[in-house]
Amino acid sequence: MTLDHPLLLALGLAASSASVPYPDGYRDWHHVSTTVIRPGHPFYAVLGGINHTYANALALVGYRSGAFPDGAVLVYDTLEARDADHALTEGQRRMLGVMVKDTVRYAATAGWGFENFEAGDRSRALVGDSAASACLACHSRAGTRDHVYTRLRG
């Protein structure tokens, strides 16, 4: 599947130089959950702050069934957490993590394509060919369901 493939375009994904396309319009998708990662967490350096997870319609099928179908896309939107005046609020975007399920294209990484866009900038893809070591190693740990950590909020 090429980056301008009609399926990707229909899913709201735009072509980019990354192997995983940037997810245009993801904030209009279903909001799955919010997590605040604080100092002391093992991934604080990368994911510290307020993290919102969004899912497209096919990813919702995966959350409900436990098996994510091809075409499922998850977005992990990481923002700075600002703590002031007894309120925790969102700051600047730190990173936009994207997982795309395609069992053929991403067979080497358990059927998932992974990419992180620095500061949410589509031209600043960070993962590239390092998906197996940078992402899959962690997403293969116990506690994931089809390599996904988040759960659909009831």
Description of the structure:
The chain has 154 residues and is of the alpha+beta class. Helices cover 18% and strands 32% of the residues. The chain is built from 4 helices and 5 strands, in the order αβαβαβββα. It has helices spanning 6-10, 44-47, 57-65, 131-139; strands spanning 30-37, 49-55, 73-84, 87-101, 112-118. It has a 5-stranded antiparallel sheet with strand order 1-2-3-4-5. A hairpin with a 2-residue loop joins β3 and β4 (87-101). It starts with 5 loop residues before the first helix and ends in a 15-residue tail after the last helix. 32% of the residues are buried. The model is unreliable at 1-17 (pLDDT under 50).
Distinctive features:
154 residues; alpha+beta; five-stranded antiparallel sheet; 4 helices; 5 strands; globular
Characterize this entry briefly.
With 154 residues, the protein is of the alpha+beta class. The chain contains four helices and five strands.
Q: What is the CA-CA span between the terminal residues?
A: 34 Å
Average of per-residue pLDDT values: 85
How many E strands?
Answer: 5
Largest sheet: 5 strands, antiparallel
- Overall helicity: 10-25%
Low-confidence stretches: 1-17
Shape: globular
* Content of β-strand: 25-35%
Spell out the blueprint of helices and strands.
Blueprint: H1 6-10, E1 30-37, H2 44-47, E2 49-55, H3 57-65, E3 73-84, E4 87-101, E5 112-118, H4 131-139
Antiparallel strand pairs: 1-2, 2-3, 3-4, 4-5
